[in-house]
Amino acid sequence: MYIVITTIFLIFLLLILIYTSNNCLKVTRYTVNNKKIPKSFNNFKIVHISDVHSKMFGKNNSKFFDKIYKLNPDIIVMTGDIIDDSEKNVEEFARLYSKLYKKYPTYYSIGNHERKLGYKRYKKYIDLLKKYGVNVIINGGVYLKRGSDKIKINALKFRENMQPKFLTEEKKKKYINYMRNKLGDIKENEFNILLAHDPENFKMYEKLNVDLIFSGHVHGGLVRFGKICLLSPRRKFFPKYSYGKSILNKTTLITSSGLGNATIPVRLFNRPEIVEVILKN
Can you give the pTM of this predicted structure? Predict the structure, then answer.
């Protein structure tokens, strides 16, 4: 009898753990200090959203929206896979999120699941985002201005920033040049943000003269044990840049654990995450 009760109790605890790991939102806060940040952008608040995969939190996504409203960001950046490739009604999903898009300037880069929607649904979805005022950046960059000050938000679509396999040093150089050509002019004296879905390219992104990178894709490693992550959605064990804040030379990478699930539909010790970043001059 004791064994039965203990087993039931452990199963109950496991179910609670799985539920909280997949449904209880958290906000993770970072500060990014950089002397290139103009004074008028000091304390500028960015909310980073990634890898939603069409998941809802509460009725009509109310719990998610309430979190964003309380944070009240200056802008929102989205780094792909906001919609899942299995999503049939892209119009309904885009309309649901339009309440955010109309309230906060939003900058959106493309992930692999948007690309997998198929041409018609992909085009319809992107057109709807633009209709609601979203700055969809396929490849290149746009300036964000405050008075005479400005920062630049750049993005690479997923096909350009997906980590190639088995790269030689020569191929890495060619790939860096390829990304540099896609982005266009990056001025070293300006503060440059890069939205790039896959964080595994961090060492190559750093060569692009960008200062702050937002990524997702790895879902925090799906299962986390402290700072150790187990598996990326690409079925890569112990991915290096799976989560959190990483610094290489003068470039900072912020990798979100994301909000939803895709191919492997479970998280453990890895709650859905909204990221807040404060810029400091």
Answer: 0.92
